[in-house]
Amino acid sequence: MKTSPRMELDQLVIKIPGRKAGNPLSLQVFPGQTWGILGPNGSGKTTLLLTLAGLKKPQQGQIHLAGQALESWSARERACQLALVFQQQEDSFPASVLETTLTSRHPHLKAWQRETPEDSLLAQQALERMDLAAMEERCITTLSGGERQRLALACLLTQQTPLWLLDEPTNHLDLHHQISALELINEKVKAGGSAIMALHDLNLASRFCSHLLLLYPDGQACWGPKDQMLELPALERLYQQPLIATSISGQKVFIPQTSTG
Amino acid sequence: MVSGFYRMLAWLLPLACLSLALGLLVGSVTISPAAAWAVFKGQGDPLHHTLMLELRLPRVLAAFAVGGLLAIAGALMQLLLRNPLADPYVLGLSGGAAVGALLAMLAGVGTTWVSGSAFLGALASTLLVFGLARISGNWNPLRLLLTGIVVASGWGAVISFMLAVSPSRELPGMLYWLMGDLSYAQGFALPWATLLLVLLILQPLGRSLNVLARGSQQAASLGMAVVRAEGLIYLLAALMTAIAVTVAGSIGFIGLLVPHALRLLFGYDQRKLLPACALAGGSLLVLADTLARSLLAPQQLPVGVITALLGVPAFLWLLSRRPG
Predict the structure, then answer these.
(1) Which of B1, B82, B207 sits opposite A92 (nearest CB)?
(2) Which CATH class is domain B5-320?
(3) What digits encode the pLDDT tens for the residues A163-198?
(4) Could you list the residue ranges forming a coiled coil in this record (chain B) (predicted)?
(5) Residue A67 region, left (φ>0) first, then alpha (ψ -120 to 50), else beta?
(6) Could you tell me the pTM of the whole model?
(7) Which of A11, A37, A84, A117 could form a disulfide with A61 if both were Cys (CB 3.0 to 4.6 A apart)?
(8) What are the two backbone dihedrals, phi and then psi, of residue A211, each rounded to the nearest 5 degrees?
(9) Per the CB < 8 Å rule, is B208 touching A92?
(10) Would you kindly state where each structural domain of chain B is located, as residue ranges?
(11) Mode of pairing for the β-strands spanning A163-167 and A194-198
């Protein structure tokens, strides 16, 4: 049996103010795939993710979520299908870490319903997974940037959706937590989930993504399986930055060239 | 039930009962509990009967409801603007109400008209701010806040102008109204009905309010109809504040301090916080009003003076212990 795509972009053009419409994007994201979005600042990575999450309208084209047009989903049902980790955590109102995590159960509950013990358990397990179990009662306004980011990932876990959209999930994270965040995503995808994430680190993208979408600042774009996309000239043109490519134990590694060598 | 809900009740219900009892017993004439018991049994001193049941009871009940309304409205405004230091008047509503009330006083009409005119002023200000903040498409908390602040300072200018041109015999009444004063309070039915209705509407929506606290983008990504929810919160908070101001003038600091302090004591869950605001805000205003009536008895102080005198140091203390 052929699996159907979890998300499908059909001639999609995103709205970027002050730039002419870019290449239309047409691609399919299947269960078991991790898509990385690479591109320099301002190339539209965040706008694309917000559009895919249904929070921004596309300029043209269609997005299908689980075979159904994205705009035909109710907001609540959509939030049971896809979850989004924002690039910046909004300056939020004081709340405890556990309470914040629990709010991610919102789409699964009716408006007036209370969280069940299972909901609390899910939230606590997610916090444990992100090394935040000891901070359950802390007020989120006292957390560090990295802790806030891990909280956002714990919320993502708690929301329990098959599709994850992540805008620079390694933002603010120390080296160890960067890897454990990406391994978390890997695990999710291996278990039949899908992920689409914006990344800035070529080496992490090369290790953790199955497919890549390259967004150029002028609106051009290309996409495909990782191995076809990680080509030195394409990447150098993408970032306007000379690179050195090498390989360490069979793994492609990219290092930026500096003017001092 | 929400965790900690009963602990909150266990603290605040006795506080509410205590404040109501004090409000009934203490004043220019202090009544002993035994004498009060006699009045309740239908015996007792007729003077005590008049003092407690005809003079103090309506005023104490009005104070409780107004305090509760102000505290809940403050909590909602703080949530709406995602700013723990917002208060019910931050969007200029009290200024509109004050202009309405002062106009009625200048016209020399009765207190009912003053209240009605204040309510209309508050509503006009609410609609003005809401309309201005939405006029250029998207509204967001910051735009709403700035619009409110500008409109409030506009009202401030109008109030100063009116005070400057008013005949001096009108001034004390006007100043008392501006400071917030419960001796004008007429009827407790409307504020109580509003308080109970609002709690009834908001209690089942508490979880959604918690989601909204995470920010509008996050809330939208969790499937909330953010604009609708924010509109509802704004209108409810405005209505509550308008009724509170109509009954008692613009009493400061209750709406700012009570939610803030309760968050520190009982946590952030709105399902716990809003009923806690009703109880604690009500108790605090009853206690403040009791002080206002008895400190310089038989002279009465405007209760807003008491809440401000207690509120300013308490607020500075809270502010100084905020991390960062």
Answers:
(1) B82
(2) mainly alpha
(3) 999 999 999 999 999 999 999 999 999 999 999 999
(4) none
(5) left
(6) 0.90
(7) A11
(8) -135, 155
(9) no
(10) 5-320
(11) parallel
